[in-house]
Structures are given as C-alpha cells and as structure tokens.
Design a protein that fits this description.
Length: about 120
C-alpha cells in the first residue's frame, strides 16, 4: 500500500511540472530575459528558478520589438506555440495583448502558461 501511495505522489508531481499540452494559443506569465545563446538574443522565461522552468525562444524580429519594453519585467501576453516543445524549451510567436504584470506571491496562477485555443503543430 505504501508503494502505491508513493508512486501516485511521484506521478502527480510530474504531471504538474509540465504545463505544455500541445500546439495552440496560450496566455504566458513570466519574464523576458536577454540570452546570448538565443537566435535573437531574447528568451521568455516561465516559472523561473523552479523545476518546471520553461524557456521560449523568439525567432521573429517583430516579436522581439513588441516585447522589448518588458525586458526584465514581470509580464503577461497571449502568443502561439506552433511547434512541439523539446522538453522545457519551445518557441513562441505572434505575441498580443502585452501587459505588465504585478506579482502576487499568494496566487498559484501568478506564473505559467495556460492554453486558450488548440491547433495543429507545424
């Protein structure tokens, strides 16, 4: 019985660690960061400093321009994930409804991604 309970606890923690559930439009809540290894030197980080940290490359110059005012600031926006993620790394595109986010450490929905529309991956 103890082994079953331990297995359930371990499986449930893995389920919550990964929030990506296929290609689609998502609401992102995280921070835009400078990164020398990214194609356009910018990444968007969600759940920073946790085991469920996800990083998203920006591959379109227009997307970087749209988000550049939010560099190193907590932010939220809608964007698309059009290709399957590679573990905790992905690519986002077409950001819209960009806004600064006021951190609320008491809210469990303060950071992360939430799917709002599903579509096929490229």
């Amino acid at each position: 019985m103890i082994k079953i309970m331990m297995a359930l606890v371990l499986l449930s923690s893995n389920v919550f660690a990964q929030e990506f559930s296929g290609c689609g439009e998502y609401v992102f809540k995280g921070v835009l960061k400078h990164d020398e290894h990214s194609p356009l030197k910018m990444i968007y980080v969600v759940n920073e400093g946790t085991k469920s940290q996800m990083t998203f490359d920006l591959i379109e110059r227009d997307d970087v321009v749209k988000l550049s005012l939010m560099l190193d600031l907590p932010s939220t926006f809608k964007a698309s994930i059009t290709k399957p993620m590679n573990g905790t790394k992905g690519v986002l595109s077409f950001p819209s409804e960009i806004a600064r986010r006021v951190p609320n450490p008491l809210s469990k929905n303060e950071i992360g991604i939430a799917k709002i529309k599903t579509f096929k991956c490229d």
